[in-house]
Design brief:
By secondary structure, the chain is of the alpha/beta class. The chain folds into 3 domains: 2-78, Arc Repressor Mutant, subunit A (Orthogonal Bundle), CATH 1.10.10; 88-194 and 315-338, Rossmann fold; 197-312, Response regulator (Rossmann fold), CATH 3.40.50. The chain has 12 helices and 17 strands. It has helices spanning 15-28, 41-47, 52-64, 98-111, 126-136, 161-167, 196-206, 208-211, 232-243, 271-283, 301-306, 315-328; strands spanning 37-38, 68-71, 75-78, 88-93, 116-121, 142-145, 149-150, 156-157, 175-179, 190-193, 216-220, 248-251, 264-268, 293-297, 309-313, 332-335, 338-341. Helix 11 (301-306) links the parallel strand 14 and strand 15. The longest helix is centred in the N-terminal third of the chain and has 14 residues, at 15-28. It is elongated and about 85 Å long. The termini are far apart.
Length: 346
């Protein structure tokens, strides 16, 4: 065991940090395993001619990070073989969509190598979310949460009561709320969010001159999706249409053999509805962007490639901002830009 510890006398790295680094390095190489006993404080201090205070400091830090544990009268043991990096992060998302994965990837790119981030999907399920928090509440330095849940009748809800109470037990300095917030949650933490109602309203106003060229605006909003969407999207859409005196309709989905009429403009949220709609537009020999307009919610590389006009949150900014605020230890609310991106389908 003592051969696994490396102390360089001439190194500028403090001796206690060298002990920590040696133990973590050997865990990562599977030379130290779960429940394996490590040298006592006295043994380590005598072997390397170190003060007890130096070894105690190293072991204290390892215990705080839950990498080792002490058993009274028996000694010190390895208690964790995962999540041993300096900053350990739990990233909880409600679904693994392409745009949420983009947020996660930009977060990983920005947070740097001096961290370890675990991604978990809770599928808008309150019980699964609560179990994940309970199971991991002591294992991470930061908790990044995208709060989107569903009621028993498959409607969207931001923060159910039990979830809110659980989140409020997480120390403010460890909590980051992404994508969706609730106004009455405490302010002394990181919140990076979309404003679903005002975002769609403002983005559609950016494209209003082209939108007005169409005779009817149809929002395809899934009422009972597997992963439900905030109803604030509906409120913002209605507000825009009423303000501009536009004929509009809200549908639950794009139906097979949809009746398409020249002058229709569709706003789709789910990818499956977008695919079904574009397919039917082509089959009916309408010209996309002239006879039938299409705006899609949330941008993807494929939509850009196909020339689909979108209204979209900047998921790159969302991920990068979360990382920067953690690294800079800043708090507060940041609204993510929401853009109207005009392409060939409008």
């Amino acid at each position: 065991m003592l051969k696994l510890i490396t102390i360089e006398e001439n190194s500028r790295v403090p001796k206690y940090q060298q002990i920590i680094d040696s133990i973590i390095h050997n865990i990562s190489r599977d030379k130290l395993v779960m429940d394996q006993k490590i040298p006592s404080i006295n043994m380590l201090s005598e072997e390397f001619n170190l003060s007890r205070d130096t070894v105690e400091k190293a072991y204290s830090i390892l215990k705080e990070r839950k990498i080792i544990t002490s058993i009274r009268g028996k000694g010190f043991y390895i208690s964790r073989t995962k999540l041993i990096s300096k900053v350990n992060i739990l990233f909880l998302v409600n679904k693994l969509s392409s745009y949420k994965l983009r947020t996660y990837n930009h977060f990983i790119d920005s947070i740097g190598a001096n961290s370890h981030t675990d991604l978990h999907i809770y599928h808008c399920d309150e019980t699964l979310f609560l179990n994940l928090i309970e199971k991991n509440k002591r294992a991470y330095d930061y908790f990044i949460i995208m709060p989107h849940f569903k009621t028993e009748d498959s409607k969207h809800i931001s923060l159910p009561e039990k979830v809110l109470k659980t989140i409020e037990k997480i120390p403010n300095e460890k909590l980051i709320i992404l994508d969706n917030i609730k106004e009455n949650i405490h302010d002394s933490l990181i919140q990076i969010y979309q404003d679903f109602e005002n975002d769609i309203y403002s983005a559609l106003n950016e494209g209003v001159n082209k939108i007005k060229n169409y005779k009817k605006i149809i929002l395809v909003y899934p009422e009972k999706a597997v992963y439900p969407y905030p109803r604030r999207i509906l409120h913002g859409f209605r507000k825009f249409c009423v303000e501009h005196n536009l004929d509009f309709e809200i549908l639950d989905k794009i139906y097979d053999d949809m009746i398409l009429i020249k002058g229709d403009l569709f706003i789709t949220i789910e990818e499956s509805d977008l695919v079904n709609l574009v397919k039917q537009v082509r089959e009916d020999e309408f010209k996309l962007g002239k006879d039938i307009g299409v705006i899609s919610y949330n941008d993807t590389p494929l939509k850009e490639l196909l020339g689909i006009t979108v209204i979209s949150t900047d998921f790159k900014v969302m991920g990068e901002t979360a990382a920067e605020m953690i690294l800079n230890k800043t708090k507060g609310k940041v609204k993510v830009p929401f853009n109207f991106i005009d392409r060939e389908s409008l």
